[in-house]
Every structure is written in C-alpha cells, then in structure tokens.
Design a protein that fits this description.
This protein is an all-alpha fold and 398 residues long. The protein has one domain. Helices cover 60% and strands 0% of the residues. The chain has 13 helices and no strands. Helix 7 runs antiparallel to helix 8.
Length: 398
Amino acid sequence: MRLSGLVPKAPPARALDIQVGFRAAVAIVVPLIVLAVIGRLDWGAYAAFGAFTALYGRSEPYRLRLRSMSVAALGLVVSIVSGTLIAAFGAPLWVTTIVLVVVTTGGTLAASAFDLLPRGAIFYVFGLLVCAQIPTPVHELGLRLSVALLTTAFALALGMSGWLVRRLTPDRLAGLHRPLARVPRLSSVARHGRTWLAVVQCGIGALVAGALALALHTGHPYWAVVSAVVVIPSPRGAHTTRRAIERVIGTALGFGTAWLLLSPNPPTWVLILAIGVCQCVTELLVGWFYAGALLFITPLALAVSELGQSTSVGLLLGDRLIETVLGAVIGLVLVLIGRTIVPDRVATAAPSGDPEGAVAGGGAIVGGAASGDPGRASPRRMSGAAEAPDNDDEEEDT
C-alpha cells in the first residue's frame, strides 16, 4: 500500500460546492444559536443530530434527494427518540444493547438499500448513544424531542430549498448552478453478502467495543462504539485494509483537531462557529475523501456531545483517546477477518437488484444529468461538467 495513495485525487473545484457546505452549516448553527439565546444549550445535541439530515442527498435531483433525506431523517429521529427514552426512563444496559443492535442493523441496511451518502449507520449509532447518556428529566421529554424534530424539519427544508432557487434563477444565470448528477440506486439487500457482513461487523464491533470500554471504566464507552463502527467499510465499498487504515488515521488525527478546538475552553459563540465550520467542511469532503472528513467529524462529534456540559476538557479528551484507540483496533481486526470471508472481487460487485452494476460507491453519473429521472431539472439548470465520483471506497488496495 503506497502512502501517497491514501489521499485520493481531488475532484474538480466545482464538485466542492461551497453552497452545499454552507447549507449544512446553517442547518446546525441556527438552531444552536436559538438554544444559546434561550439558555438551553444543554439541548444542543438533539438539535445537532437532527441537523445531520442536511448531510444527505447532496448532488441528487430533488425528487430523489427528498427520498434520501427523508430516509435519513427517519433514521436520525428514531435514533434520537430511542436514546432520549432510554435516558429519561433509566433503561437497563440490556435494553440499550438491544436497541443499539437494532439501530446498527437497520441503519446499515437502509443506507445500503437506498444508496445513502454518507454511508453506513455511524450517525444513527452516534445519535442514539449520545442522547442515551444525557441526563433527561421525564417532564422535559417532549420539549427535547421537539427540538430534534423541528431541527430535522429545518435541515430537510434547507436541503430542498435549491428547488425553488433554481426555478427563480433567470436563464442567463442558470449555468451557475452545479449539475445534480448523482442517482442513488435502490437495491435489494436480501442476497447481498457484503451488506450482511457489514451488519455483522458493525454489530459485533459495537458490542465488543462497548463491553471492553465499560470493563475498563473509560467514562464514555459510547465513543469506543462509534470509533469501531466508523472503521467498518460500507457494504458498497471495497473491503480493503487500506480503507480501514485511512479511517483509523482520520479518526486519530481528528482527535488532535478536537484537542486544538476544545482545550482552550472556547466561549459558547466560538464553539458554535467551530461546529458550523466542521459541519461545512465535513459536507465538502465526505463524498470523496471520508478519512479526510474524519478530521472534522471527530471534533464536530466531540463538541456536539459536550454542548452545555461541564465535563473537564482534559478528562474528556483523555477518555476519548483511549476509546478511539480501542474502537479503531477492534474495527480494524473485524475488517481483516472480513477480508477472509468475502473477497474484494465480491465486495465490489453490485448489490442484488442493481442490474446496471453500480460501482463501489453507488450513485451513477450520466452526462451531468440524472439518468432515468423524469422529474429532473431541465437541461439549462443541469448544465456543467459532471462531478467527481461521490464515494470514499471506490479504489482497490494497491
């Protein structure tokens, strides 16, 4: 494996759409500002996880984007509600374990079946476990869940706002819009071995990492779970050690970014601004260089999980370092085992039900337009070069 090959070739500058990143940042910053103004920034995690809806459906025609964002929104809401109920009623560990397995399985299957980007169940798992560890009075249950629902709806509306903007844009300026070129492919996962392998890997990784973190009394065992799940390749990606190592490196370097951000104990407005920047850059990178996106996903996740909390930064980062290493090692071991079960030539095959043989990353790109979408925007609004492939797992090991 060449070290130079760890960083994929950058897509055209047009593919890094600043508007898309800005929209994702607005989805999270505006609700956090509102919560800060009313003095309830401790509810920020619910808003942040709802805002992750804005990360889905990028570069897709609006009819397909609505489907992708709705599926993602449903998964995020279910995760947030489940975690909040666990916290409010003090559910025992075995209940949390069962819910974790259900969310991990359901999130992985949904992401594969609907060809969602970002891949996998990571945001659902993270939302579940963070919300489950936030002290939640029962009488505030409705208010906290309302924050999540309203933010999710706001993020979805922002994601679809371009539909109106494009229709109000004069013809002479239509070329300024980027092509909506990604066509997510629906597929059956029933007989797709890689999908079920990913389900098993994520489930085992989550359970083992969580159990070991609890046994070691690390303080925040859910981060070990998240670190293990993030290393597991998506079902549509190449099942390679290279990609797993990229994720381990990205998570570790992201820890350093988080230290730079959190160790000075920044004031609230700086923290909110930093969260918005991390959300924006994550959106720009996640489609073509997931490991690079982890440089910003990790501090974003850490900052979100501690909004309104009084945890010592030193203790927080110390726990996270141990848990990151623990989870990443477990995930890497599972990837190595998985390669002996399902060879790479099977890993890159299209899922059952995808007759056109989608590449590892999924979504087809056809001439800068959405193939097979009768409801797509007119050619004048679709003009421009097709963007770079939107997957993080397309290349084989070298």
